[in-house]
Amino acid sequence: MELQHVSYQYPGQENGVTDLSGTFPAGKITTIIGPNGAGKSTLLKILSRQATPQSGTVTLAERPLTAYTNKLLAQRIAVVSQRHELYDDMTVAAVVKMGRLPYHGLLATVPDEEVTDFLAQTGLTSLADAHLDDLSGGQQQRVWLAMALAQEPQVLLLDEPTTYLDVHYQQALMTQLRQLAAAGMTVIQVLHDINQAFTVSDWLWLLQDGRLVAAGTPSDLRQAPLLAKTFQTPIEIVDVPRLGPYIVQVPEAT
Amino acid sequence: MTKHAGWWYGGVLTLLVVTIAVALMAGTTWLGPGRLWTIASQPASRDFVTVFNLRLPRIVSSLICGGSLAVAGALFQAVFRNPIADPSILGISSAADFFKLGGALLLPWLPGRNWVLAMIGGLVALTILTSGKALRDPYRLIIVGVALDATFVGLARLVSSGQASQVMQSTFNAVTWSDTVALLVLGLLGLVVALLLAPWANDLKLADAALQTIGVPVRVIRWILLLLGMYLAVSVTAIVGTIPFVGIVIPNLARRFVGHDYQTLIPFSMLAGAWLMLAADTLGRTVIVPSEISAATMMAVIGGPFVIILLQRGRGFHGITTR
After folding, report:
1. Mean pLDDT confidence for A162-174
2. Is B196 in Cβ contact with A107 (below 8 Å)?
3. Averaged confidence pLDDT in chain A
4. Has residue B305 been placed in a domain?
């Protein structure tokens, strides 16, 4: 995916993004980081076409996003939101089948065997007939991931996917994203945990006030002054045995 | 469909058959099965007229109305994502009633007047309901709906110069074969479409943003289901009048019995609604023979307490989240 001079302002609000240009390399994990209000979620919305930029172009496979039909776009780009809302009870299999809709007519009944792989991939096979209400937050997150994977997208967008997960599930999710990227999927996510971002990503986008401050590999961006300036807090990078470099926030110097 | 749901389907079908049989036999004069059989070949007899021109159209009308109202309720609940949304509580039916009344006064020459004006009334109410903030807040939706309902009931009383409430006049008493045929055609058409579109009601369980990302045209399917629900409810209002609560009681019980999948829920609601309406009407016309209680009154007495219990027991209100 590529952005060229993309700007988006919410009507009547200051937050937005300004003149973003850059690429999201295919088959890699790119993480968007930056302080609150930097425009991370807005950027994700632009990438999923939930927000249409006032200027600039977003292209997927060298074709502008606006040229895709809704259905075709749903076959290319899938989104896992921070928290999905479900207004009525559904079974796990029924939710995952929704992810197959881009490949069917609107009134089609999706056959069970179309989702068996995606249930297996996310460890949900035994829960296929369970009701979503009865699942833990971590299990529910896996259901939404399974639905996104059922779209067989080229690009997977995740908005703070680890927020409601405990450490164990966070780790499991990141391992899974790694595998998906290795299989050729372009993974783009927003993360708050900066160390997680640096550990798991192949490529980073650092945003501040709606502008792209820097883009590069984690080793390119692992600079205390740059991060301190962007997050407006004193930052040091320490070496943790058996872990490597770790970004820590330190008390203001007096 | 689960085995459990299968039993409930069997149960409601059995109830339907039994209740239809009882409804044919019961009335001012009781006609046993043997008598029914003999009068079938005596078209000139008085009992034949009673059964085929009075009881049978009444039975068919109640079945279609009950099924239509229950399905309309289920569709409204899916669209508004609110377990007590229903065309009667949201003022759609009373708007239809008011326009029907106005039409009778102003446009007496219009063919198919009642139905056409009732549909216009339904559309007006629906437009008011969906144009403001009510869609975003389940409490606001119900309150706006109740206010709409009160407004149109009041307007109808004003026009009919202070007569008794419209609701209490809705009855299957004196329903003719021509009314019945109209109901049958309008109702069956809507019900068949509802059965076909049931998967869309399931889609709306997901949030709009999520539906957009899987390429589902949310606004289109929402409006089609909404108009379909309105059409079903308003067709009943046009011919019989407003009958409250069927659309709330039946789909909510149905969720308990057969689950939350609209592809199972809508057909079940149709059958159970048909049964409830017929049972309420048959009871209403046999309890205090030769007088009778209207179907709307019966439903108000049954449905009101049900809604109170439903809400007081703290079931999910924002979204239909509890089982």
Report:
1. 87
2. yes
3. 92
4. yes
Quick check: is A185 in a domain? Answer: no
Return d(Cα B309, Cα A195) in angstroms, integer. Answer: 51
Q: What is the mean pLDDT of residues A203-226?
A: 94
> Average pLDDT, stretch A152-156?
97
Contact A74 B221 (CB under 8 A): no
Q: With a cut of 50, list the residues of chain B below it in pLDDT.
A: 165-168, 318, 321-323
Number of domains making up chain B: 1
Residue A109 lies in a domain: yes
Q: Which of B205, B207, B215 comes nearest A73 by C-beta?
A: B215
In chain B, which residues have their Cβ closer than 8 Å to the Cβ of A90? 202, 205, 260
Closest CA to A47 of A28, A64, A34: A64
Q: What is the DSSP string of B257-311?
A: HH-S-HHHHHHHHHHHHHHHHHHHHHHHHHTTTTS---HHHHHHHHHHHHHHHHH
Residue A94 lies in a domain: yes
Q: Which residues of B touch A89 (CB under 8 A)?
A: 205, 260, 320-321, 323
Hey, are the CB atoms on A90 and B216 less than 8 Å from each other?
no
Q: What pLDDT does residue B308 have? A: 87
Domain span at residue A100?
A: 86-151
Amino acid (one-letter) located at B240? V
Token pair, residue B76, equals 């409204």
Q: What is the tally of structural domains in chain A?
A: 1
- A106 to chain B: which residues are within 8 Å by CB? 199-200, 216-217, 221
Instruction: Using the predicted structure, report yes or no on whether residue A66 has a pLDDT greater than 50.
Output: yes
Q: Is residue A100 part of a domain?
A: yes
Do B124 and B95 touch, CB atoms closer than 8 A?
A: yes
Dist. CA A79–CA A189, nearest whole Å:
10
3-state SS, residue A187: strand
pTM of the entire structure? 0.91
Determine the Cα–Cα distance for residues B256 and B260; give it in Å rounded to an integer: 8
Contact between A157 and A44 under an 8 Å Cβ cutoff? The reply is yes
Beta-carbon count within 10 A of A55 CB: 12
Please check whether residue A40 is in contact with residue A55, taking contact to mean a CB–CB distance below 8 angstroms: no
Torsion over CA: B273, B276, B279, B281 (sign):
negative
Quote the CA–CA distance of B71 and A132 in Å, as a whole number. 25
Quote the pLDDT of residue B322: 38
Nearest CA to B205 out of A8, A98, A17 is that of A98
Torsion of CA B278, B284, B287, B289, to 10 degrees: -110
- pLDDT of res. B1: 64
The pLDDT score that the predictor gives to residue B34 is 87
Distance of residue B220 Cα from the nearest chain A Cα, in angstroms: 11
